Amino acid sequence: MNPIEYEKTIKDLYKTLLKMYPGSIDVKHNVKLGGNQIDVMWEHELADVRYKTIVECKQYTRPVTKNVVRQVHDTMQYLKATGIIVTTSKFQSGAIELAREYKNIHLLKVNFFKRKGATLEMYITEKMEPMIVFDELTSSQTALQSLYEMDKA
To answer: How far apart, in Å, do the first and last CA atoms of the chain sit?
Structure first.
């Protein structure tokens, strides 16, 4: 797969993932915006607020450096957007640390293999404590009890 095909495949991946949100979100490839070339981009509106997301695709064999993270962050600041860097390789530890500092850049490793299927790795740049809360009025008592028992184990 060449770099342009990789970008288009990432665009299609996000187009599929974003179908779960209400309304139609137009995911675009190779957008020129404010003098910048953006590999993949989409905009959506929520509660009368407009959000913009840009995706930089790096079909690399070497790890993505913090310079790439810095460049994407600069573009994000200029465009007032959230950013995602997607690569076929991995990220240098300095790149991951810098993304943690910026807080609004997401790092993903996405490969597509003809025989093995697609793989997706996410680099978490912010520590999060997931919590699942069930509404006792709509959740069955059996389901709540089994979750409670698992939590105690």
So the answer is: 47
| Pairs from 12-17 (Cβ < 8 Å, separation ≥ 24) | 13/110, 13/118, 14/40, 14/42, 14/55
Nearest 5°: the CA angle 40, 44, 29 is 15
CB of 49 within 8 A of CB of 149?
A: no
97-121 residue pLDDT tens: 999 999 889 999 888 766 555 555 5
Strand order across the 49-58 sheet: 28-33, 36-46, 49-58, 82-87, 105-113, 117-123
Amino acid identity of residue 43, one-letter, is: E
**Helix-strand-coil percent breakdown of the chain, rounded to 5?**
35, 35, 30
Kindly give the interhelix angle for 93-102 and 66-79, rounded to the nearest 10 degrees. Answer: 20
Q: What's the predicted TM-score (pTM) here?
A: 0.73
